[in-house]
């Protein structure tokens, strides 16, 4: 067993783990944080996406020991004071989900994308979510939700660098 | 899928990593981003007894200029390489190649040293290094050596790295303003290249046309003799015998190599 100390959703954690324990299993089975889903388990689908030091990563391909000394945020850590994170609110508003399995990973990938590029074009959203698969929605409402979240967090209106046509994503 | 058990050691320095490699030899593997190694361990295609983690060694990450070369630390992640102003200005082909690897999450974790050491012939960065005429810096118990990319890749997932050696850095010539082209043919986002071509100043590298990234030597010779891009590209598959899989048979890959080489020689990206 290896001792790891890390921060998960702003809480300090300290646990003895087997070195082979994957971060996604540490989050789900040790900490009981079940938002990150195990989908493909092969670094393809993105359902297990979490933020590691603010950057989106697939937690099925990170060992828990590799996260030691770092900061992890899962979908459970996004809302504060009973308020949904703007990306979560936009997914609800724009109906950016159907079955919901990909949603926690999709939301975390979108949060990571918007932290790197607060005003993406529609094309940048689509390529920015390349690492996340959704088998229900066809992606249109997801893309619309991410664009809406970008607008909401900057007070709405046209943004520099933003493709004006992208506000009218057709489903 | 859960990897088989292993012993985990966080290396305290590159020298410590080499000591551990010397001690454990073939039983050990280096871990940095883990985005080639961990999937193989989950599938039991790799089952090291000891993992030596070099992912936290800051001295192995980052990009600096050194004379006529850029020096890229082995644990520099793809996203950092793609975003580096220095790389974008002085070796834009390398920054572009880094931005083509996998998807954003993968680029946040994967490292250039890991990708080169893994030596997947379909991967972006090995092809880019060959096209750039770059080299790798290798440290081991017998000292340091620098190997040209053309000599580093020895076979399918095989390199000249010995079990007790650590790839510490990558050197690429600074070539600001020199036109280049990059083509990666895939059917789906995130896939490895069915065929890839990178071209810069008379050098042409092919991905997934053989067991290693290859130089399109016949096409390079034609270019040097004054052939047009189209004439040279017609020779791009000469001497190659690519593998066949569900995506493409041999003749289709050879066709793709010719088409993509023409586009790359016309400095197109895609």
Description of the structure:
The complex is a heterodimer of chains A (171) and B (270). Chain A is α+β, with helices and mostly antiparallel strands and 171 residues long. Chain A contains 5 helices and 5 strands. The radius of gyration of chain A is 16 Å and the shape is globular. Chain B is α+β, with helices and mostly antiparallel strands and 270 residues long. Chain B has 3 domains: 47 residues, Uridine Diphospho-n-acetylenolpyruvylglucosamine Reductase, domain 2 (2-Layer Sandwich), CATH 3.30.43.10; 116 residues, Uridine Diphospho-n-acetylenolpyruvylglucosamine Reductase, domain 3, CATH 3.30.465; 86 residues, Enolase-like, domain 1 (2-Layer Sandwich), CATH 3.30.390.50. The longest helix of chain B has 16 residues. Chain B is globular, with a radius of gyration of 18 Å. Classes of the chains: A alpha+beta (171), B alpha+beta (270). At the A-B interface, β4 and α3 of A face β1, α2 and α6 of B.
């Amino acid at each position: 067993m290896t001792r790891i100390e890390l921060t998960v959703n702003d809480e300090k954690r300290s646990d003895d783990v087997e070195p082979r324990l994957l971060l996604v299993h540490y989050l789900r089975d040790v900490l009981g944080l079940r938002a990150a889903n195990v989908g493909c388990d092969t670094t393809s689908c993105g359902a297990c996406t979490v933020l590691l030091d603010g950057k989106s990563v697939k937690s099925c391909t990170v060992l828990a020991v590799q996260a030691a000394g770092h900061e992890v945020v899962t979908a459970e850590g996004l809302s504060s004071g009973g308020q949904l994170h703007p990306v979560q609110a936009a997914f609800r508003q724009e109906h950016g989900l159907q079955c919901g399995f990909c949603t926690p990973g999709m939301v975390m990938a979108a949060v990571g994308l918007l932290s790197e590029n607060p005003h993406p074009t529609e094309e940048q959203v689509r390529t920015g979510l390349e690492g996340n698969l959704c088998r229900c929605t066809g992606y249109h409402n997801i893309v619309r939700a991410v664009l809406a979240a970008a607008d909401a967090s900057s007070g709405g209106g046209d943004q520099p660098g933003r493709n004006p046509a992208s506000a009218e994503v057709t489903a | 899928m859960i990897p088989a058990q292993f012993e985990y050691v966080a290396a305290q320095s590159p020298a410590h990593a080499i000591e551990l490699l010397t001690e454990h030899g073939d039983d050990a593997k280096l871990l940095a981003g883990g985005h080639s190694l961990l999937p193989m361990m989950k599938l039991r295609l790799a089952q090291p007894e000891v993992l030596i983690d070099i992912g936290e060694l800051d001295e192995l990450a980052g990009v600096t200029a050194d004379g006529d070369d850029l020096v890229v630390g082995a644990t520099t992640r793809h996203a950092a390489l793609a975003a580096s102003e220095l790389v974008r200005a002085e070796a834009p082909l390398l920054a572009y190649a880094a931005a083509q690897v996998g998807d954003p999450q993968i680029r946040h974790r994967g490292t250039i040293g890991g990708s080169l050491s893994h030596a997947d012939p379909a991967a972006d960065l090995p092809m880019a290094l060959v096209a750039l005429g770059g080299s790798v810096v290798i440290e081991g118990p017998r000292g340091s050596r620098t190997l040209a990319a053309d000599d580093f890749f020895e076979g399918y997932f095989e390199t000249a790295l010995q079990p007790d050696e650590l790839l510490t850095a990558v050197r690429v010539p600074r070539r600001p303003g020199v036109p280049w082209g990059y083509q990666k043919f895939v059917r789906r986002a995130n896939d490895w290249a069915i065929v890839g071509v990178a071209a810069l100043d008379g050098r042409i590298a092919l991905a997934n046309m053989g067991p290693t990234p290859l130089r399109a030597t016949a096409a390079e010779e034609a270019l040097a003799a004054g052939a047009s891009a189209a004439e040279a590209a017609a020779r791009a598959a000469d001497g190659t015998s690519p593998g066949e899989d569900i995506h493409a048979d041999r003749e289709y890959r050879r066709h793709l190599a010719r088409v993509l080489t023409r586009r790359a020689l016309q400095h197109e990206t895609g």
